[in-house]
Each structure stands twice: as structure tokens, then as C-alpha cells.
Design brief:
Blueprint (H helix, E strand, L loop, with lengths): L10 E5 L4 H12 L3 E6 L3 H7 L6 E5 L5 H15 L4 E4 L14 H29 L3 E5 L12 H21 L5 E7 L24 H13 L8 E4 L8
Parallel strand pairs: 1-2, 1-4, 2-3, 4-5, 5-6, 6-7
Helix pairs in contact: 1-6, 3-4, 4-5
């Protein structure tokens, strides 16, 4: 830990810390003096990966489809640390839904994971983020939040909505020092990337490394209030879009 870091002691609540990108975010923040609160259905893998709970990290049971578990997680974080200075929504998953699929269950799942759950956690954390004076919300979105390249509209539409949620959060919290950022990566070298779209020929070594996304998250957290970045777009391949 960098004990002399100006951010030492700040508390960041992170969903999806057991995923490829989420794990990199947790490691980076711990290495730079932050305290973290991690929620997951199964906390044992988190403890195995990041070490036993201590003064800098806690693990709590969290089910994205259970509102009460979100309330308990935030409450336990306040009971333990007395503050929340940032929220990182990095949770992933859900089924894929194509345009012509009649699959409301899969659509509901991605909407819950990428819109309703981040919104729920944002609402619960917002009073503490406001108290911080420089509270931060970082949503791990996707380039799918900026353009649709295939027919998996469930994921794409939900990510567009998550981007909109980020801007709504930024607008709501601005006067009280809360800043919100959506990080929109293309292909990232995680285990999940092994399930690539047919015809995609990008080797893992050419994909964006999760540690790079983690660095961007920390940058969004550490930028001063007068240098807010609403969106950070990163890609490992050229797209003539912007």
C-alpha cells in the first residue's frame, strides 16, 4: 500500500470484483492506499484472491437480484468504515438476446444487472458520496454503449441505458461534488473474451489489458472536481466512429 497517497483511507464500494476487470480494479485500488468493500454471491473466492478481511477490505454477500442485500451491503460498509467515497459498478453477466428473440427473461436479466442494480447502489451510496465532497461513481460500460455492431440488442440496449444512467448521476450529483464516469472499453483480455463473436480474430495479447481499465477507473476517481470526464472510451482495434 502507498501509505503516503493522498487517497489513503478513501472507501470504494465495488460490485463485480470477482470478474476479470473487477479484480484488476480491486488490486489497483488496494495497491494505491484505498479501502474497499466488495460484494458477491460467494465471498470465499474474493477472500482467496485478495486476502482475509482487515482494516482495508471487507467482503459482504450481495445478490444483484435482491434489493435487500444491496441495502445490507451499503449499511455494513458504513458500519465498518463510516464513509463511502466512491462506487464502481463492474458487475457483468446475463443472457444474450437477439433482436428477434422472444426472451423476456434474458432481457430482464441484463436490464437488472446493467441498469437497475447500478441505479440501486447509486441511490444507496449517494448520501455518503455527497458527504465526501468529492464522491465518485464509475460505471464499467462498454463500446456497446456507443454503437451496436451485432444483433444482441439485450446487452447493447442495456449498456446504452447504463451510459444514460451515468449522465443522469453526473447531473444529479454535480452541485454536491459527486462526479460520474462511464468507462467504455472494446475487447478486454479476460476469460470471458474467450467467448468471442464468430469471425473475430483478435488474439488475447492484442486486447486491452484489464490493468489498463483499472488505471482508468482510478484516474476517474482521482481527478479533481474541476476536471470531470463523463466518458472514457478505449479500444484495441480501429473503429471509424468518433
Amino acid at each position: 500500500m502507498l501509505k503516503n497517497s493522498p487517497n489513503a483511507g478513501r472507501v470504494i464500494l465495488i460490485s463485480g470484483g470477482d470478474g476479470g476487470i473487477g479484480s484488476a480494479i480491486v488490486e489497483d485500488l488496494l495497491n494505491h492506499g484505498y479501502r474497499v468493500s466488495l460484494g458477491s454471491l460467494d465471498t470465499d473466492p474474493l477472500e482467496s484472491k485478495f486476502g482475509p478481511a482487515d482494516a482495508n477490505r471487507i467482503y459482504r454477500s450481495f445478490d444483484a437480484f435482491d434489493k435487500e442485500s444491496a441495502t445490507r451491503w451499503v449499511s455494513d460498509t458504513i458500519d465498518t468504515f463510516g464513509q463511502i467515497d466512491g462506487l464502481v459498478n463492474a458487475i457483468g453477466g446475463g443472457g444474450r438476446t437477439a433482436l428477434m428473440d422472444d426472451n423476456d427473461k434474458a432481457l430482464d436479466e441484463v436490464w437488472e444487472l446493467y441498469v437497475k442494480t447500478p441505479l440501486r447502489l447509486t441511490r444507496l451510496c449517494m448520501p455518503y458520496l455527497e458527504n465526501s465532497g468529492r464522491g465518485r461513481v464509475v460505471n464499467i460500460a462498454s463500446l456497446a454503449a456507443k454503437r451496436i455492431r451485432n444483433v444482441t440488442v439485450g446487452y447493447g440496449v442495456a449498456k446504452f441505458a447504463q451510459l444514460g444512467l451515468t449522465h443522469a448521476t453526473r447531473t444529479y450529483g454535480w452541485e454536491k461534488g459527486v462526479r460520474a464516469t462511464a468507462i467504455c472499453p472494446g475487447w478486454v483480455a479476460t476469460a470471458k473474451s474467450a467467448q468471442k463473436s464468430p469471425g473475430l480474430n483478435i488474439p488475447a495479447e492484442d486486447m486491452t489489458d484489464p490493468s489498463t481499465i483499472a488505471h482508468m477507473v482510478r484516474t476517474a476517481i482521482e481527478l479533481p472536481n474541476n476536471a470531470s470526464m463523463a466518458e472514457m472510451i478505449i479500444n484495441c482495434e480501429f473503429e471509424d466512429l468518433f
